[in-house]
């Protein structure tokens, strides 16, 4: 029998989450995490994916990684995993976005950083609702230097400019900066030990709490 798939709705986002090879991941947490650095990177990415999938505006998460260990864990957290073209972060995101359009041609596409372990689905919903008002939009990170989310309306070119001081780059590229209250968990990226403590204070997902305990950090409150 022919199975007719329902058309994806415009509020049904596909989020692309990039996860680099674990040997190279989270180097700024090397001292704090010691032998648990790769486990911490995987835990943070999987908690991010699980929370994103818990958001009613998200239809699916496409994770882009070339790492087999990360790929298995991310698939276990519910992501649709595609291989990394190994040409850098923005190339990985564009590759994931092509898969997103293949999976849901009528839906909006976003890039979400993989290091948001405190992410709360309801806060992500606010960001996606705001982003849907613009052709191209982004959310700056907690430090207001980088970016945690970049998204486009259906049919608009997906041209992410992540890396380093990407807030300025996204502004120059003409994306609308989202200035929203009540979305701290979507902006709380984790690069340094200080960032990790700030995320733990907000409340992180269960995998990150478990690794935090192993590296001697107080796991803080539950998300
Ligand atoms: N798939 C993919 N993801 C990448 C690549 N480069 C960076 N990322 C991801 O993009 C996000 C930001 O990356 P970085 O800040 O460069 O790296 P990081 O692992 O978070 O931290 P550091 O090693 O401390 O710089 C993280 O989620 C990374 O996993 C890449 O080439 N491919
Ligand atoms: C790559 C970026 O993030 P990070 O702070 O993780 O380097 C970015 O903000 O564009």
TrEMBL record:
Record keyword GTP-binding present: yes
One Pfam family linked to the record: CofC
HAMAP family linked to this entry: CofC
Record-listed phosphoenolpyruvate binding positions: 147, 163, 166
Provenance organism: Planobispora rosea
Record pathway: Cofactor biosynthesis; coenzyme F420 biosynthesis
Family: Belongs to the CofC family.
Catalytic activity: phosphoenolpyruvate + GTP + H(+) = enolpyruvoyl-2-diphospho-5'-guanosine + diphosphate
Keywords per UniProt: GTP-binding, Nucleotide-binding, Nucleotidyltransferase, Transferase
GO-annotated biological processes: F420-0 metabolic process
Function text: Guanylyltransferase that catalyzes the activation of phosphoenolpyruvate (PEP) as enolpyruvoyl-2-diphospho-5'-guanosine, via the condensation of PEP with GTP. It is involved in the biosynthesis of coenzyme F420, a hydride carrier cofactor.
EC number: 2.7.7.105
Entry-linked InterPro entries: CofC, Nucleotide-diphossugar_trans
Protein's UniProt name: Phosphoenolpyruvate guanylyltransferase
Superkingdom of this protein's organism: Bacteria
Transmembrane segments: none
A molecular function GO annotation: GTP binding
């Amino acid at each position: 029998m022919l199975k007719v798939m329902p058309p994806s709705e415009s509020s049904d986002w596909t989020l692309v989450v990039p996860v680099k090879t674990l040997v190279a991941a989270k180097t700024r947490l090397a001292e704090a995490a010691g032998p648990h650095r790769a486990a911490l990177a995987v835990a943070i990415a999987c908690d991010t994916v699980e929370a994103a999938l818990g958001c009613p505006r998200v239809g699916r998460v496409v994770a882009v990684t070339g790492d087999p260990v990360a790929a298995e864990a991310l698939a276990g957290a519910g992501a649709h995993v595609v291989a990394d073209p190994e040409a850098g972060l923005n190339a990985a995101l564009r590759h994931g976005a092509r898969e997103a359009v293949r999976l849901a041609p009528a839906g909006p596409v976003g890039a979400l950083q993989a290091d948001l372990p405190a992410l709360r689905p309801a806060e992500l919903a606010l960001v996606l609702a705001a982003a849907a008002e613009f052709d191209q939009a982004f959310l700056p990170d907690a430090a207001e230097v980088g970016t945690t989310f970049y998204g486009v309306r259906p049919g608009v070119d997906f041209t992410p400019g992540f890396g380093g001081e990407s807030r300025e780059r996204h502004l120059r590229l003409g994306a609308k900066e989202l200035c929203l209250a009540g979305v701290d968990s979507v902006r709380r990226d984790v690069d340094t030990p200080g960032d990790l403590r700030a995320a733990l204070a907000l409340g992180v997902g269960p995998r990150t709490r478990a690794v935090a305990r192993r590296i001697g950090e107080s796991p803080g409150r539950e998300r």
